[in-house]
TrEMBL record, chain A:
<dbReference type="InterPro" id="IPR050901">
    <property type="entry name" value="BP-dep_ABC_trans_perm"/>
</dbReference>
<feature type="transmembrane region" description="Helical">
    <location>
        <begin position="192"/>
        <end position="214"/>
    </location>
</feature>
<comment type="similarity">
    <text>Belongs to the binding-protein-dependent transport system permease family.</text>
</comment>
<dbReference type="InterPro" id="IPR000515">
    <property type="entry name" value="MetI-like"/>
</dbReference>
<dbReference type="GO" id="GO:0055085">
    <property type="term" value="P:transmembrane transport"/>
</dbReference>
<dbReference type="GO" id="GO:0005886">
    <property type="term" value="C:plasma membrane"/>
</dbReference>
<dbReference type="InterPro" id="IPR035906">
    <property type="entry name" value="MetI-like_sf"/>
</dbReference>
<dbReference type="Pfam" id="PF00528">
    <property type="entry name" value="BPD_transp_1"/>
</dbReference>
<keyword id="KW-0812">Transmembrane</keyword>
<feature type="transmembrane region" description="Helical">
    <location>
        <begin position="118"/>
        <end position="139"/>
    </location>
</feature>
<feature type="transmembrane region" description="Helical">
    <location>
        <begin position="84"/>
        <end position="106"/>
    </location>
</feature>
<feature type="domain" description="ABC transmembrane type-1">
    <location>
        <begin position="80"/>
        <end position="270"/>
    </location>
</feature>
<keyword id="KW-1133">Transmembrane helix</keyword>
<keyword id="KW-1003">Cell membrane</keyword>
<protein>
    <submittedName>
        <fullName>Carbohydrate ABC transporter membrane protein 2 (CUT1 family)</fullName>
    </submittedName>
</protein>
<keyword id="KW-0472">Membrane</keyword>
<feature type="transmembrane region" description="Helical">
    <location>
        <begin position="151"/>
        <end position="171"/>
    </location>
</feature>
């Protein structure tokens, strides 16, 4: 039963290759585009072989965009910086709030507990625009419009439910007896939380943090409405390349490559860490 | 006539990136019609792989399996005419207990009255008449196991395969069910193989027990034979509860025989006349042997071995006395109550005729004369 | 030195009442086994003492001080769990030392002492996942013992170790547990383990203590038919009888044979009773005589060194007989006759299940 036929193996190989090409091709194409000028990109038919140019990256880093309509100031590096600040701060805040909350949901049965947990998750179901309109109104009242804090706060709608639900599952997988044993060894519940539960849920917390970082990073619509140019992340910043003289495909591609790189590196790094931590063997079996 | 014949069975599990696992090696085994056989061993010994190969859930890597004269090892499971009870029960959740048991009979298109009669009969045997209309999720683990047993035993098959059939049964029912099932199998001449890690279960149910370890069949014999004439040190120490007492002994020749000395505390004279020539030769050539005596063969209260009692436990129908003799632990089991407290010095009698003698390589040199 | 005292403790989870007015005292240095069928409330009792949840009613005292409401870490309790509950990210050494608040030297010497006692010195540097189940359980025991707690709770600690190790630990544990002066509560589902390890056994059935007595007493004089069925393997044989007293002798019809059940002092028990006879108290022979029940052997199932016979009595009742290895056994389908002496008979009230009067067995002893 473990050996499949030759035909089966060939079929599996072909299917996997097709799927891989389907999903990977756009990424490769964007990467190639980022080293081409707009003219090269728009040439029909497109070519795989071309003379690479670093002009797109230069323009992004120097902040000067030369177009047919003249020089244009862009603040891509500023946007990149904003993305890093906003996403990191949002994830940190979400971890600080979400991990203890996840622990509470995992360990304690309290009235309305399940309903609260589900309500928090349901924020993920609602289209962002639904909350955005009222939100922008009272952000203006509160003076939160166009502040880092305001955006970090609204990002909690993305990060917090994710962290809560993923980390809760990890906490539930830890046998409560392990924490009981630690408490009977003379430690308070805070110590049991910080020295036993959190380290054991470490891989889960890392995974949840990483995922919510990526979701925050990729968010577009919250910052579009609630922030002005100097607080906007890369996702919104890329709009600047849709200029009066046309769409600057080369720069957009370079911007995408630059903005994807941090999350990609993070994911690659964390993957190793996640796999390491997943087999624990604390309890029997 | 042999009902089931396993010839040169090998099973090798290969998975990418890992060393291949040789789960069963060169297994030869023949089971007679109407015989009940236990595959006994600890986890990873190859017993479950063997059962699954007979059932057809695993391919054999080498060798052949014949059932009732038909070669079956290349047939799909459904065409082998075997019935199986699974360790995890595998009851069909959307069916009631009655429907679960009747499932195979209905597929075989037996008349409805016949199906009902047979289900009722087997249900009475395993005491599940009152839950026949329940669904599997609503009954306890022990009840599920009984349903699973009933579902296998109700069928008409050439061979019945039972995987850990009684591990989860309620302790109060176990002894009675063992007796009833053994009686049912004998009455109908059913051939059965069951896998277990529990030697109590193996000796209670089986006519013959196949002891497996490391994928190799160590011995295939009746319970009496395994206890009285173990093939090697592994079988000797594995079979028996509590396990056989094993001691290292030095061998010296004495007039007309051998003297086996355990430290300075115990010595046993083995009469040369009672030994066959091979055993005598082996003893003459071995400076050091292992001797074994069953806890039930040690008599407490007489004898010349003085032990310091470590624990004395009365279990209602038997006493287990553990004693220390020069740093060696001896365990004795008697059916009466022993009045001794930890720390007391008590005599133990170990008779030479009850000794099993093993060479340093684990092979058996001499069995006990009286088992 | 502290006594553990449980006073009229109750706990309900919805409709289930795993503790229903439990009272039990354990002296320092004493081992009490809490034994009962699964779901009888053993684990709940242990967890209330450990402070994992609080009783609805009643009090728990350790050394005369009530611990109800106190957090687990302030109760002076050591505990070993069925699933070991080792800290997976710490070595065996750190696991054992986790409860000690002492200088480095002292921690090292105490860990060395306890691990030598439990024979795990060679694995102290290993992580839990590198330990065998037996080593895991020994590490967990070391962790529970090292702080010399006032109260030691063991929640079926040998459940997940193999038979051989379990037997070894059964011999070793009583001495190990009696080293200190802790009051020990030992939960188990195996009556042999309870009898082997405990000074007294508390039989818990449906959240109530059905009997608390020494192992030998419980086996010989079970308070009820339910308890009698829990102790003994094979299980005690039962038959429905209506005893009568004649000429100072109590007797009853059992499957068509008139059997003597002992001396009748005073009135015979009124109405229907359960007669209980342990399988090892039955004698089986091929010769008929007065006071012998006719039976047929259905199957012979060897067990340990004994032969267990499944017998069908003349009236269809199934009984088990456990015979010593040297006794003649006969073969399946043989017709035989079954006897027991009056002092082996136990009588239980049919309605309440309680054992009737002083058992004949008691007087014989």
């Amino acid at each position: 039963m473990e050996h499949s036929s030759l035909a089966g193996r060939i079929f599996r190989g072909v299917a996997l290759t097709l799927i891989l090409i389907f999903f990977m091709f756009p990424i490769v194409w964007i990467f190639l585009m980022s080293f081409q000028t707009n003219e090269q990109i728009l040439r029909i038919p497109p070519r795989i072989l071309f003379e690479p140019t670093f002009a797109n990256y230069e323009a992004l880093i120097s902040g000067q965009l030369r177009t047919a309509a003249g020089n244009l100031q862009i603040s891509f590096m500023r946007n990149l910086f904003n993305s890093v600040v906003l996403s990191s701060a949002a994830v940190l805040l979400a971890l600080l709030l979400g991990v203890p909350a996840a622990y509470a949901f995992a360990r304690f049965k309290f009235r309305l507990g399940e309903s609260i947990a589900f309500t928090l998750l349901s924020f993920r179901f609602a289209p962002p625009l639904l909350v955005l309109l009222p939100l922008s109104l009272y952000y203006q009242e509160l003076g939160l419009n166009d502040t880092y804090f305001g955006i970090v706060w609204v990002y909690q709608l993305i990060a917090l439910p994710l962290i809560l639900w993923i980390v809760r599952g990890y906490f539930e997988d830890i046998s409560p007896d392990i924490e009981h044993a630690y408490r009977l060894a003379g430690h308070s519940w805070r110590e049991a939380f910080t020295r036993i539960a959190v380290p054991l849920a470490g891989p889960g917390i890392a995974a949840a943090g990483l995922l919510s970082f990526i979701f925050c990073w990729n968010n577009f619509v919250f910052a579009l409405i609630l922030a002005s140019a100097d607080k906007q992340p890369v996702t919104v910043g890329a709009l600047a390349f849709v200029t009066a003289s046309g769409i600057q495909y080369g720069q957009i591609a370079a911007a995408i490559v630059l903005s994807v790189t941090p999350t990609l590196l993070l994911a690659l790094y964390a993957q190793r860490y996640l796999v390491e931590g997943l087999s624990l063997g604390a309890v029997k079996g | 006539m042999d009902m089931l014949e396993l010839r040169g069975i090998d099973k090798v599990y290969r998975s990418r990136g890992k060393a291949p696992v040789h789960a069963v090696r060169a297994l030869d085994m023949a089971v007679e019609k109407g015989e009940i056989v236990a595959l006994l061993g600890s986890s990873g010994c190859g017993k479950t792989s063997t059962l699954r190969m007979i059932a057809g859930f695993e391919d054999v890597s080498a060798g052949s399996i014949a059932l009732g004269g038909r070669r079956i090892h290349e047939l799909p499971p459904a065409r082998r005419k075997v019935a199986m009870a699974f360790e995890g029960y595998s009851l069909y959740p959307p069916l009631t207990v009655r429907e679960n048991i009747a499932f195979a009979l209905k597929s075989a298109q037996l008349p409805r009255a016949e199906v009902t009669r047979r289900v009722d009969e087997i249900a009475r045997l395993v005491e599940i008449e009152d839950i026949l209309d329940s669904y599997p999720r609503a009954i306890s683990g022990g009840q599920q196991q009984r349903v699973s047993l009933a579902r296998a035993l109700v069928r008409d098959a050439d061979l019945y395969l039972l995987d850990e059939p009684m591990g989860q049964l309620e302790p109060q029912l176990r002894a009675v069910l063992r007796g009833r099932i053994k009686s049912l199998l004998a009455e109908r001449g059913m051939t059965a193989i069951f896998v277990t890690h529990d030697q109590t279960e193996a000796s209670a149910l089986a006519d013959r027990i196949a002891v497996m370890e490391g994928g190799v069949l160590q011995q295939f014999a009746s319970e009496k034979e395994l206890k009285g004439r173990p093939a090697n040190l592994f079988v000797a120490s594995f079979i028996g509860e509590p396990p056989m007492n094993l001691l290292d002994a030095g061998v010296t020749q004495s007039d007309g025989g051998f003297r086996l000395s355990v430290g300075t505390d115990m010595a046993f004279d083995i009469n040369g006349a009672g030994l066959d020539s091979e055993a005598a030769k082996a003893l003459a050539g071995a400076p050091q042997v292992r001797i074994g005596i069953r806890p039930q063969k040690i008599v407490v209260g007489t004898g010349d071995v003085r032990v310091k009692v470590v624990s004395n436990q009365w279990l209602g129908d038997q006493s287990h006395v553990a004693g220390d003799c020069g740093g060696r632990m001896l365990i004795a089991v008697t059916s009466g109550r022993v009045a001794a407290r930890p720390g007391d010095i008590v005599p133990f009698a170990l008779e030479p005729r009850h000794l099993h003698i093993f060479g340093s390589d684990g092979t058996c040199i001499r069995h006990a004369e009286v088992s | 030195m502290a006594r553990l005292e449980i006073n009229a403790v109750s706990k309900a989870f919805g409709a289930a009442r795993p503790a229903d007015g439990l009272s039990l005292a354990v002296e320092p240095g004493e081992i009490v086994a809490v034994f009962g069928p699964s779901g009888s409330g053993k684990t709940v009792l242990l967890r209330m003492i450990a402070g994992m949840f609080e009783p609805d009613d009643g009090d728990i005292l350790i050394g005369r001080r009530s611990v109800v409401g106190a957090p687990p870490e302030r109760r002076g309790i050591g505990m070993a769990f069925q699933n070991f509950a080792l800290f997976p990210h710490m070595t065996a050494r750190d696991n054992i030392a986790s409860g000690l608040r002492a200088s480095g030297n002292e921690v090292a010497s105490r860990v060395a002492a306890i691990s030598k006692l439990l024979k795990i010195e060679h694995v102290l540097g290993h992580a839990p996942r590198e330990l065998s189940n037996g080593q895991k359980q020994r590490t967990a025991l070391a962790r529970a013992l090292i702080g010399n707690p006032d109260v030691l709770l063991l929640d079926d600690p040998l459940r997940n170790v193999d038979a051989k190790l379990r037997y070894e630990m059964r011999l070793e544990l009583p001495n190990l547990l009696r080293r200190g002066t802790a009051a020990v509560l030992y939960v188990t589902q195996d009556y042999r383990e309870a009898m082997a390890i405990a000074d007294r056994i508390a039989v818990l059935i449906d959240g109530r203590l059905a009997q608390v007595a020494t192992p030998a007493d419980i086996y010989a004089q079970p308070a009820s038919v339910a308890i009698a069925r829990l102790f003994g393997d094979p299980t005690i044989n039962l038959a429905e009888v209506s005893p009568v007293a004649e000429h100072g002798v109590l007797s009853a019809d059992v499957a068509g044979a008139r059997m003597r059940l002992g001396a009748a002092d005073g009135a015979a028990p009124a109405g229907a009773c359960w007669l209980g006879v342990r399988p090892e108290d039955l004698a089986v022979s091929s010769a008929s005589s007065d006071g012998a029940i006719a039976a047929r052997i259905l199957a012979i199932t060897p067990m340990h060194e004994k032969a267990v016979l499944l017998l069908r009595l003349a009236d269809g009742t199934e009984w088990l007989a456990a015979l010593p290895p040297d006794a003649p056994q006969g073969a399946a389908d043989d017709s035989v006759f079954v006897r027991f002496t009056p002092d082996a008979a136990m009588l239980f009230d049919r309605a309440t299940g309680l054992r009737i009067g002083a058992s004949p067995r008691l007087k014989a002893a």
